[in-house]
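Notebook entry, structure prediction.
Reason for the run: the old model in the group folder had no record of what sequence produced it. Starting over properly, with the input documented here first.
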Amino acid sequence: MVALVSTVAYLGLEARGVEVQCQVAPGVPAFNIVGLPDKAVAESRERVRAAIAALGLSLPPKRITINLSPADLPKEGSHYDLPIALALLGAMGIIDAETLASYVVVGELSLDGRLAATPGVLLAALHASSENLGLICTALQGAEAAWAGDVEILAPKDLLALLNHFKGQSVLTPPEAGTVPEPDQGPDLKDVKGQETAKRALEIAAAGGHNLLMNGPPGSGKSLLASCLPGILPPLSPAEALEVSMVASVAGTLEGGQMSRTRPYRNPHHSASMAALVGGGVKNLSC
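New structure, fully documented this time:
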């Protein structure tokens, strides 16, 4: 029997759909994961095995094959644990496979079956919304996922709570969207003494949405003036706030499901290299 579960792969700020296919077939007992998994995904075998054992279940003495499709797309991260476990339970006949087809699943499993938070849940929720599917994630990130809009979200604390929900023994309460804190404006331009020409240039750049290049000797106030720019910019639009929160979600810094309304400001050291600013790595020159 083959069971299918939908999940996502993160490519920058894009969540691309991935199908987890599980087959349990006669043969020498084995548990294999294919489809370009990285080390974290390959290690999910042991986490899934231990989490299922924590439920009082054991894997069948058969050949278990997990395929992450499309197979040519690299899979990174620990959020594949839960979809692999659900696909395996579906192939074992413990969960209805048709029910699983209605959800996008992300989440990391602990050895005792608890669900741990993973980066990028907001992107997965937006992807699920675009595909008219529900989302299954950890309870710690239910408030974050709720910002995606009209999406059915199941946010259990552990694998057992999710199984009880599917079997009708208990019902998971839909999470509510996190709070929206007041934006942190940072330094105020009125605290800068003098520099009237530079402050005027900041106001013009903020009003017109222009780029700004400041040049001068050390200690002339360039960094202080730059840190004051977010305070005179207009508030983030809903689309901008969502984009900033998506970046924070991928970085794993979106705490408590709070939608970020603060304009991002970065202050890299003046000696930082290009690789330090934009990230290193090997360039892909293939067409």
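Summary: The longest strand covers residues 14-25.
The old model has been moved to the deprecated folder.
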